[in-house]
Amino acid sequence: MKIVTLLGSARGTGNTATVLGWVEDELRALGHEIERINLTKKDIKPCLGCAKCKESETEINCIQHDDAEEILQKMIGADVTLFASPNYFWGYTASVKALMDRSWSLVTNYHKPNHASLIEGKRQALLLTGGGVYENNAEGLGFAFNKLQAFYKTQNAGELFIEKCTIDGNRPDDAQQRAVEFARNMVK
Fold first, then answer.
1. DSSP one-letter code for 170
2. Degrees, nearest 5: CA angle 138-35-30
């Protein structure tokens, strides 16, 4: 499978990047093609809410021309997209959220019988890291991700939250094992 991973952490060697690397290594070992995109290094402007993108069911059609369009095209071309983000104040990082907002251009006629998506049927997964536990902390991100999949008309390929990560790189002892299992389950 062709898999695009979207890293939303500014820390290129931080917890999220490290766990994502373990996932990517396992996916490569299983024979899959991986392309990592570091969203924090891309120019992704916020969605303007102008709805120009709703004028086409067959292309992105956003009036803004920045790196978001290329990333969305890669999502269209991939079999699986993996979003990876640290939990920042009960939410995704700004770069992940900006891309999710701009992905409005992938879908037309939401909540109507002719609801269409340029990534319909594709698989998506979510990898999160955070300093706290899941409850009262990261569950809102999972909820939002599931809502986004209904909007995209995509399939959930899995969700992983690695808790108790510290700024100095400490993670639970089983974090790598959980990342490897997550990778294997993503492509079943």
1. -
2. 90
